[in-house]
Amino acid sequence: MKKAKLFGSLTLLTGVALTLAACGNSSSNDTSSVKKMKAAVPTKTAKKGGTVSQAIETDTPFTGIFSNELSTSATDTSVMAPANESLFDTDNTYKYNNKGPATIDINKDAKTVTINIKKGVKWSDGKQVTAKDYEYAYEIIANPDTASQRYTSSLADLEGLEEYHNGKAKTISGLEMPDGENGLKVVLHFKEMKPGMEQSGNGYIWESVAPYHYLKDVPFKKLQSSDQIRKKPLFFGPYKVSKVVRGQSVTYVPNKYYWRGTPKLDKVSFSVVNPNSASQAIKSHKYDIADVVNSQWDQVKNTSDVNFVKQVPLGYSYLGFKVGKWDAKAGKNVMDPNAKMNNKNLRQAIAYGMNIEPVTKRYTKGLSFQVPTLIPKQFGDYFNPDVKAYTQNMKKANKLLDEAGYKKKGKWRTQPNGKPLVIHFAAMSGSSTQEPIIQNYIQQWQKLGLNVKLTSGRLMEFNSFYDKVQNDSSSVDMFQGSWLLSSEPSPNDSYSEKAPFNFSRFVTAKNTQLLDEMDSEKAFNTKYRVDKFHEWQQYMHDEAYVLPMTNAYQVTAVNNKLTGYSTKPADANGLWFKIAYAK
Question: What angle (nearest 5°) sits at the alpha carbon of residue 22, between those of residues 56 and 251?
């Protein structure tokens, strides 16, 4: 239940999340049975009372940053879910529908977006959510002292946000509060209107608020580590935080001020469970809600008294190549022409060396699948069906390396300048299948004469992995990461020059041009925008700075006594208000 995309944000997945899908033996019956699964449990009459427990499957403690503006982890987003709510509800295609905590009105001609927070939407301490709370969310993101990873060039389309970020202004000029800070109305003034703005997750409109009255006395520099964020966070969703055991569990009780009504459950608890123990936890009904780890599907598929629900997440795993650094002072990625991996032949050879499809079938038995491009198929016309995934071709890989001057000297190839070539590969730990999958890829590359070694000599847990990747450690030449995407298809926040999440740090004039074009006013013409998306996917495939790898069906086991659980986009906001025990 990773709803980060509904807060307009891209999110980092753990190594376990790469393999959270229902998979088992290779029979087509298993595959088809999962494909036939519903996206929601049966709807029944709800009753009041009871406790619901959910498993958080991770082999590392969750970070526990309970703030949409500061957190980047999908695990944190999952753990926050019972209390956390976006300002906007959507339909099943992620379009805003004004049924949520706030309404949104987009005026293309005036270049404005007007947000009206509904009266009665209150924080769990009883205070009304106000216009200032919305402004404060932007301040947290844009103030350099918070070091928020959420500040992007997309958000900086808001008038005055860049000036605030750079310290040239004390307020955000493009954020207007017509009825004052305690009012409920906000008018956003944009430099340029974007075609995706009517879609949740567009990256240009922030979709959550932060409790100014509760956090205002905490200096921005200390906000992320403060008790107000880590131990006693404030939200306006159906439940409120009762207890946090850092990195291990969170307990929730009802928010009596919740705007939609009184939540049905007495208590909700989230607890960490090792993914290797997930199947036993499901079979023993230790948790009421638990994701199925793909390699364990055979062990759990016949479990009684559960409903299995499925979804295909908007996301993918990928292989990224480090070709530059993040310049924090300038707020942009800077490419290094001399970077070890800044050679297209080398990157393409590594791609052709990978046996992604057969390995995925072997270890996930067909329900994880290779993806050909960086735009998921769920985005419809924006997906380019003409881009074909890299498939293993060792002859072609060797030829590419030979042509680029990577000569063999004994067992290993050298760099074109004759120096030894050692490629440090960072990968996350995960379920029990992660190690053999990663070792398989290393073996394939070594057959090409590429001396690939794991960074730190082993798989890394989530926090250590992203610490090295985000900070451009010299011990990382390439890395396997994974995205949970926002629900508007623009890849600007992932791969632009000013995107902190562009972890490969590649910047080219052509990439910038295509990203700008697909989000330009000209792109209000859908055909033009689709064409630019298609062109960008082909360009990214050819340049191979980032190689898309796999996605998977994600299946969740839900206690069959529960009603209201759903993976449909329209049900995501306020989902925990709907979850209850059936009469």
Answer: 15
